[in-house]
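Appendix B.2, paired examples.
Example (i):
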Amino acid sequence: MLTLLFDLLAVVVPAGASFCAALGALVLYNRFDAVRLARTPAPDPDAKAVFLFSDRRLTDASASAREMMDAGPQVRDDWARLSAILVPAGLSLPPDPDAVMADQPQRMMSKDLERDIRIERIGDCVRITVTPQRDSDPQVVKIEALAWQATQDELATLRASTDELPYLVWRQGADGTIIWANRAYFTVIDAVNTDSPYQTWPPMPVFDVDALARVAGDGMPARLALHTGDGAGPQWFECTARPLGDGHLFSAINVDDAVSAESHRQAFTQTLAKTFSHLTAGLAVFDKSRRLVLFNPALTDLTTLSAEFLAARPTLFTLLDRLRDKQMIPEPKDYIGWRDQMAELEAAAQHGTYSEIWSLPAGRTFRVSGRPHPDGAVAFIFEDISAEMMLTRRFRSELELGQSVLDSFEEAIAVFSRDGELTLSNAPYDRMWRATGGGELLAEPMTVTEASRFWMAGSRPTPIWGEVRDFVLHGRERTAWAQTIQLTSGIEMLCRIQPLAGGATLIGFSTATTDRLGEQIDLIRA
């Protein structure tokens, strides 16, 4: 029994000792933890914020310091993030931790006098201490926790929204220093500043400083170029500025596609201009606002308008007024009527129906045509047709002379073309067959078949008319011949058929005595 008891104690005692030791350790640990918790103060928003940096990396920080860092912008390194947090308060860090000397601590006060900052080097590290200034005023209102959380949520939403914007947004102070920027701006900095391994605060300006100052001063959008380090061409941005506080809020939208489209349009316009420069006709293209956008050198030659005036993009009515001053348009009876006529000209050209001959006071003649173009544009073509009109007048004068000569003949003459159409007749022929009742129809273009019906109606039956039709239409041998016919009035006529150049045929009707009739027939046959 005693043996069994001693064996039991040998097992229980070591286990109990272990249990007691563990229980004692747990009690001691809880007591130590309670002491540690009692000695650790609760987070206080007014407590000092202490930051410890090794190079540009934050290696240790107090609770309030970490809260400040969590609220900072998402830049590449911790040193730049703290710089961004302190800039709005008027506190600035050196651009690099290496600038902090061991024996030269720095201290400064915020612009609102609510906190100061101490920067000092401790060995290889830099310690930054931000100390709030205690306000002795008992009326200071503390921010309620729920309101603080709501503010933080709104801040997170605004930050996420601005970082997701596809264009650049940044804010500059009164001195031009950048105090805030979105993620797109930092992405552009990475593309521009390829030599620096990290971003500094404040961020570098990516656009020309003077150009940004002009945008802020004018308040009008401006197109700015951005040169990246990849060797490609410049990127183009449409930059705008709006006053905000004592500085400005800038935004820049990439407009490379618009610039490329404009470049292609200008190249196409230049190609058209080079093509049109060889035309002898003057060309003037007006856009939908009726401003001159394209002209060729022939326009200056024809209208005597200077290239400087045309390059200034005058309106349509300004150009017409200048043409009127130079007597390059038909002289109107009254100016008001002329303006109405020019308004009708614009409307007709817009529908592609304007075409007019301008007889100028100096004796020159222009043909002016209007044609519509896409997007409401209108093109006018000026052609100098003075030589053409002179040739036409001369040709018309010769025709009138020839007609007068034919009309002076006693013989009635009609000329038919190769196709059998009546092309020419004289006054005796018209009088002769008008008496048969066919005068009204002879004024209209007719064929030899139609004319032969009038001949048959005005003469006694004879087989000659079928032979005449065959001769005119090349149905028989092309040699001159003649035959007598008798009109219904009983008058005998000599009908002679004479081939002409170009396949034409002359048919003549003349009265004659029997002796003279035989002589004319013999002459024709000879």
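Example (ii):
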Amino acid sequence: MSPSIRPSGGPDAVVIGGGHNGLVCAAYLARAGLRPLVLEARRAVGGCASTVDAVGARVNICNCDHIFFRTTSIAEDLNLAGHGLTYLDVDPNMVNLFWDGSTPWAVRRSVTETLDVLSATHPGEVNGYKRYVADTAPVAALLVEVATRLPTPANALRSVAGRRFRGAVRMARFARMSALDVARSYFSTDALVGPLMAMGPAVWGVSPADPGTGLGALGYAFRHAIGVGRPTGGSGALTDALQRSLEAAGGSVRCGARVSRIVTSGDRVVGVELGTGEVIETGIVVGACDPRAVLVDFLRDPPAGVVALRDRWAARPVPGGYESKIDAVIEELPRYRDLGPVTDTVSDPDDLLRPSSYICPPVEEICAAPGIVATGHVPESPVMFVNLPSVVDASMRPEGGHVFSLEALGTPYSLAGGWDPEGEPRRWLDRYGSLVEGDFAATIRDWRVVTPVDYERDFAMSRGYAPSFSGSPLSALAGRDRELTRYETPVEGLYLTGAGTFPGAGIWGASGRNAASVILQRHR
């Protein structure tokens, strides 16, 4: 390693942001012999993957279901089990409920068991589901393999050839279609189409009818191939284990350290400056946060060859947030009304409270939601994700109660009339209460709401929006937006990782590992 990469006494690399991708990237760098320093503005690592104390309990900042992370070898590579990480499997892995009273149903890890559920709840959809699984399983497997390697044409060709081209043609076709068209080519009712749209495009804040969203219709396939797991102790147990692994390998974390500027000299990085004025010298900087913040807010004096890139990012519109979350402690478990034949597919009715419940309006309303959000309003019947983490994980159970979380999609940053907990958020609780027996509101011991405004303030998410890679796997393979798909920028020593880079949002970690691979190739 050249002396310019390791300033005397300073870290070899500085990672801006202690979310799971930043920690993964830093841990791989540390295992390779570098001395990375993770700078986190908050008082603890984890970002949106963290678990915090609130309302008299431990609550997850975002949904606690982990799927994609367990497709990677990150846990084994970084010995996360040795640093305290264990997973609890969740099966059934989702329960689907509907505002219009459609028959509920559940997805099991096993395809056969899911078909048994559908035979009881939606017999007319069984054959379509069989076709769906047969067609999408190879696509999902290929997509996961492509995402867990550096997305280059050569690597993609190896993945495709290794699978004898299974899934490649269909993946290319789905990538150009809308998620709605993909789903409706297999299913005839909203009861099967709606949950796919809710866990795909609706989470991204876009309409499922938009062309290019087709791969968002793979949700059921991923749940069968991978399943759902939850870290014991909450989602933040993952990032806590990552921090311990990083530190055991010689890296370090510094919380309460807010970066204000990336320092450059000529066409290369030489350090970062904190809000206090302190400068930390280093030859490698990894932005593990919003790419726009890195390239526009932190890179104040870019080298001449980077001005055009910075201006392009500065001109991009900043979307408003589209999701809010309620955390509560409830004194008794909710009991859903009119579950119908799905109750006959489980041995214990409480099994249907273990997974997240996806509560969906008709598909036309899911498609219309982005337009409603753009006017500053929340849809009348928003998509909701509801889970009770303490049913699966006894370590999260507060004394005399349970943890309840509700995520409402389609909640704008600039809400008409402003954000008031007793306004829209209270309406969501009442709306949810209409699905359960008794007086749900009376069971709530304490609750809070986290709105897009809160996400902006507490997690540096501009306008409450969580950046996510918006390109397709094909665009990544083609190297479009190279700073997002190849993880490096024209500024020597400046790299990007995180949800804004390929493969995108969710608890995955592939971006962090891929970025570390690129850095090590450049600076061995």
